[in-house]
Amino acid sequence: QVQLVESGGGLVQTGGSLRLSCVASGFTFSIYTMSWYRQAPGKEREFVASITSYGDVTRYADSVKGRFGISRDNAKNTAYLQMNSLKSEDTAVYYCKTVPLSFWGQGTQVTVSS
What is the number of alpha carbons within 13 Å of residue 14 lying toward its C-beta? Predict the structure, then answer.
């Protein structure tokens, strides 16, 4: 079965860093663009970042440009989101997703203390 499992979330102070991981199984990971989304309480789920199959093109939401970095390791079937200079408004559940077929992980909680 197709499965995406996020990890690496937790509690961090404002200005700190976290690295999220998304381990994929049950499909050919290398042919999919991978993306990260997040959803804060009471808000719509929003796009954070994406990376194409071989890492040649990356995209970021304006709110995270210059602070977050997306990467992938196809040999490990894993996508990453490096989050730096974290702010309280980054607090959310973070999800990884495939493109164009929409496979979603269960999410990992990131909490940034003010």
Answer: 5
